[in-house]
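Box 3.1. Reading complex inputs
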Amino acid sequence: MNDIFSLVDWSRAQFALTAMYHWLFVPLTIGLSVIVAIMESIYVRTGKTGWKNITKFWMTLFGINFACGVATGIILEFEFGTNWSNYSWFVGDIFGAPLAIEGILAFFMEATFVAVMFFGWNKVSKRFHLVSTWLVAVGVSLSALWILVANAWMQNPVGMEFDPAQMRNTMTDFWSVAFNAVAMNKFFHAVASGWILAGVFVMGVSAWMLWKKRNIDMSRTSLQIGAWFGLVGIVLTLWTGDGSAVQVAKVQPMKLAAMEGLYNGKVGQELVGFGLLNTDKEVGDTEKEAIHYEISIPYGLSILANHDMNTFVPGINDLIDGVALSPEGDTVNTVSYADRITIGKKAQDALRAYDNALRANDSIAMQAALVDIKDNYKYFGYGFLDKPEDAVPPVALTFYAFRVMVMLGGYLLLLCILAIFACRWRTSWLEKSWFHLVAMISIPLVWICSQAGWIVAEVGRQPWVIQDLMPTGVAISDLNAGSVQFTFWLFAVLFTMLLVAEISIMLRYISKTSKTDIENNPHI
Amino acid sequence: MKYSWKAIVNMYTDGFRSMTVGRSLWLVIIVKLVIIFAILKIFFFPDKLATEYDNDIDRADAVRSALSRGSESTFSD
């Protein structure tokens, strides 16, 4: 049993490591591509060479990040085939179709126009170059769209039917998968978070140049663009985050309960602003306090979950008992988790019966088993759980990651407002070391915020790799835990080297180029 | 502005020739792709079902049996 746990844990750790490193590069690519396109648009509109050089400076930083990040996502696809073979087969073409579209449409679009973007200066017309830059920005976001469509399906599986003969979920409605409400929110939330990240990156680098008293005018202009762009990004992130919360409350209520450390819900549920989780609190316990030193916003969670201060928000214990929010936001009694486990086991019994009938070539028995599978398939995954508590995600990690994301998000909102205020009404602040320091320190903080968001999304949905249908422990391949452990460390080394390469190439370029007069440098 | 195949080729050759930071980046990209496709994919990440089974029927059987086994072991616990 220890070996199995170890294999699951190492497989999860390996995937998390790869995905998190990949996500270090992606949001900067998403956001910086738009900033570069905006700067180039100003150049084409004004015709000023200074803007062309500013665009080229930031475009080079975009290129460094693009080069270091490109293909890091392919490793995730390798892992699906090797480490997650049961999952890969089970999801079939539903997961494969969006990824294929991503590869064919978006990636080739990026790859084609990136060449024009970097090599096409003075070779193609200004307008064609500008269109190419915008197409790269659009292509980058389209890539993200299809990846997030695939991810959203795992959180909210729709538009498919299970075929036990193929042992796959087959797509029955492409548009339901593509326009899954979870996917749309997730896409805009992730893209907008990339905008904040890039905005803060531009602000931080510009602040460093201001601190060094290099390219003062250009740095101030860039900082202002970064601040406005970051502000737009964070407002959109807050808006889409609100939409996500409403969906999570209905589609993945256990995730919301874990995010809040909420065991027993109530009408007019408060939102925890700050608090320390009581690690002694267990599922089913109604006596012990869940959170120590709690500072809460009254009615906050009810408003967040359903835009209604009188909504009942179910906690972990309520959900296990079958109490949930309906799609309309009403409190309803659904199937308790104990019953879901029974139903899931029935579905799996039927699958075994189907397997036996298939081997015996008994079509009548197959048909009977198929009916049983379909009737009980909704809770198929619960059949793999031993007890209802197994359906609860790691509460502490989800709770604290959510607080880190929200607190840093609030900080970044204030930072953008502060920077805009400084640029417009207190320009003397732009010369102060404290301002430079705050902007520079914010660069790692925005990445921590972004990663924390993914921890909430992915850890909060455990134990499911596909919501209600497949738990993570079942999705993995039967491999030697040692080999997964080995590749984990291999990736840790490889990705760290890539990150060091990116940071050092970037720092060298920023340091060297900023010593020249960028706006008037013909060789930039 | 008129474009021809020659102009497109020139754009790439001139672009590569005049690269400064780009040389280090291409080195990073090439080394990375070699590691990913020539080492990781071949030696560490074979597609398990594709390599161990000959056809989709066998693959479906393998997954069905793996998922059924999972359920049975849960029962026995």
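In summary: Chain A has a mean pLDDT of 92.
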